[in-house]
Amino acid sequence: MADPHGRVAVYLDFDNIVMSWYDRVHGRNSYARDRQRIVAGDGDAEITERLAAAMIDVGAIIDYAATFGTLVLTRAYADWSSPVNAVYRSQLVARAVDLVQLFPAAAYAKNGADIRLAVDAVEDMFRLDDLTHVVIVAGDSDYVPLAQRCKRLGRFVVGIGVAGSTAKSLAAACDQFHAYDALPGIPAPAVAEKPETARSRSRKKTVDPGAELLQRALRLESDREGEDWQHASAVKSLIKRLDPSFSEKAYGFRSFSEFVKAHADVAEVDESGHIVLIRLAGEKT
User: What is the pLDDT of residues 73-131, one digit of tens each?
Assistant: First the structure.
């Protein structure tokens, strides 16, 4: 939903994104295991190498947010005295990001970023009447009420989070959700694959969330319109409303048409006219 006249506010729970991406690159719960060595900041060569491999590309996030309109304000919440966050300060300041300092109440305790961020966002929406989009960069389900409140106040809510570490409820609460991993310029992390079991292989063969989503959207759109053939753009819009995190690129396709064609057992495609039409496979008009 790019809007050249849009006015956008961006809120980053920076600690959340840094920890989530570290886990994405090095494996589940890696940050928790390495936390003590990371906080120590004593030049541990191994930790320095692991942190470098899991660096966040702040520019990719801000550039993506800018596609929705003019960035009115951008705030990043974290304990900026911590070495793991301090390395980003110059990069953030160079992109005109306001750094909000949060101190944890106790060692290894939460810093309360979710509460502070939510309070600021709601205050900004009442203070800036022309704000059209709110971009929440986080993955915690604690932000679901904020996303819902933003939508009730008439703002278009965009979520950005790390795949595998973002609560499904947060993605569903947004108007649009995009994985940090899939942002332009972000290389896919080389994560070690777990050995497959017979059970996991059979599950992969029987479950295709993309196909199920396409089929559900086609049924709903066909029932609503009373026609078998539907505009591909209308079906994609409905899919995005059913699952804001949907992206054909996440399934390895360059376009929505390619995604539909790959699911020939679910849908048929008609490209004979100027408008691409699709319908459920086997339907007769």
Answer: 999 999 998 888 999 999 899 999 999 999 876 554 455 788 999 999 999 999 999 99
Write the CB contacts of 224 (distance below 8 Å, at least 6 apart in sequence).
none
Distance between CA atoms of 47 and 259, rounded to whole angstroms?
Answer: 40
**Side-chain-facing half-sphere of 270: CA atoms under 13 Å:** 13
Q: Whole-angstrom Cα distance, residue 159 to residue 178?
A: 6
Measured CA to CA, the distance from residue 74 to residue 109 in angstroms comes to: 25
93-105 burial code (b ≥16 CB/10 A, e <16): eeeebebbebeee
**CATH match for 209-280 among 1.20.1050.10, 3.40.50.2300, 3.30.420.610, 3.40.50.1580:** 3.30.420.610
* pTM: predicted TM-score of the whole model, two decimal places: 0.76
Domain ranges for the chain, please list them.
7-182, 209-280
Q: Six-digit token pair at 97?
A: 């990001």
